[in-house]
Design a protein that fits this description.
By secondary structure, the chain is of the alpha+beta class. Helix content is about 25%, strand content about 30%. Strands 1-2-3-6-4-5 form a six-stranded mixed β-sheet, with helices on one face. The two termini are about 20 Å apart. The model has no long low-confidence stretch (mean pLDDT about 95).
Length: about 130
């Protein structure tokens, strides 16, 4: 069975250059890729503050999910990717604002750095479209 594939964009000019989408919906499944803490102009939000950066990531994710016909309550998995694992508590405090009701499964991990050294966190989520 062939399922419709829908690409969700948030207008980031790098989407066409690099070849990625903010999110992809296939059937009732939505994958939201690594979401960085940037504003509409591509500037980093909350430089030095992982809590504010995590909130910004989830605001972008919320918009992408809504464009795909879903919402925060439909998230089934989150991945919190940090440059410093010691920041996990602040990131999770911000994550709770968006995921406490859905209670998705979660992975928290650390990497050396992101492409922009101002970014302390990126978030990925998987979600479903409600019946």
């Amino acid at each position: 069975m062939l399922r419709k594939r829908e690409l969700i964009s948030n207008g980031n000019p790098m989407e066409a250059v690099v070849g990625f989408s903010r999110a992809v919906r296939v059937g009732d499944f939505i994958a939201v890729g690594g979401t960085a803490p940037v504003d509409a102009q591509g500037k980093t939000v909350g430089v030095g503050d992982v809590y504010l950066q995590t909130k910004q990531c989830f605001e972008i994710i919320k918009d992408a999910l809504e464009r795909a016909g879903s919402g925060l309550q439909d998230i089934v998995r989150t991945r919190v990717i940090l440059t410093d694992i010691d920041n996990w508590k602040q990131a999770i405090e911000a994550r709770k604002l968006y995921c406490l009701d859905a209670r998705p499964v979660d992975t928290i991990m650390a990497i050396n750095r992101f492409v922009n050294p101002e970014w302390l966190v990126e978030i990925e989520v998987d979600a479903v479209v409600p019946d």
